[in-house]
Amino acid sequence: MRLLFSAYGLLAYAVSLVSATALTYKLAPNEHACFYTLVEQKGAKLAFYFAVQSGGSFDVDYNVVGPNNKVIMENSKERQGDFVFTAQETGEYRFCFNNEMSTFAEKMVDFEIAVENEARTQLPSKQGTSPEQTSALEESIFKLSGQLSTINRNQKYFRTRENRNFSTVRSTEKRIFNFSVVESGLMVCMAGLQVFIVRFFFQGARKGYV
Q: In the structure, how many helices (H) and strands (E) does the chain have?
């Protein structure tokens, strides 16, 4: 029982080492939006994930800028990205999205910024537990934490694919509807034209008989 309580304590401590922000943001046409996070410890891990859920060609320009305006990474026309890097300096890090390439299309962007301190804690030794048991439990907990992170990322990936496929279906449905309207209009115009031509022929024939 004591070992179980120790495991819970370790898991709670491991969770407290990670601070994350997950948001969904609607990026307007020609908009440049930035989000900030503060790193208080040198050597901390920063995880940056984003995915364009809808809008235009599902792409966006992005860049990551560290303290002293040092550009860490940047790219253009990316649909999604998943990056982990080490903070070499303490201070404020800026994560920006740029939709200036779009004149009319809004972009719906899901993103997550996480700051993780990789320092591990040791389970407190309890009477009746061996160091081998404690170490095995500790490794199992951190392995479980990694597997949960993998599941979370897979869920985000499948959600992104679902949103993009749904957007494609809606776009195709809209095109089919517009084509059907145009086709119906052309059929009505052709029918009217045929009626006009037939009446014109009959009126000409009557004038010939007269």
A: 2, 8
pLDDT single digits (tens) 67-91? 989 899 999 999 888 888 999 899 9
* Contact criterion met (CB below 8 Å) for 56 and 105: yes
User: pLDDT tens, 119-139?
Assistant: 555 555 555 555 555 677 777
In which element (H, E) is residue 202 found?
helix 131-209
CA distances in angstroms from 201 to 60, 114, 187, 188, 194, listed in the order given: 61, 79, 21, 20, 11
Q: Looking up tokens 């002293």, which residue turns up?
A: 68
| pTM of this prediction exceeds 0.70 | no
Token pair, residue 114, equals 């996480």
In the chain, the N- to C-terminal Cα span, in Å, equals: 114
131-209 vs 2-16: helix axis angle to the nearest 10? 50
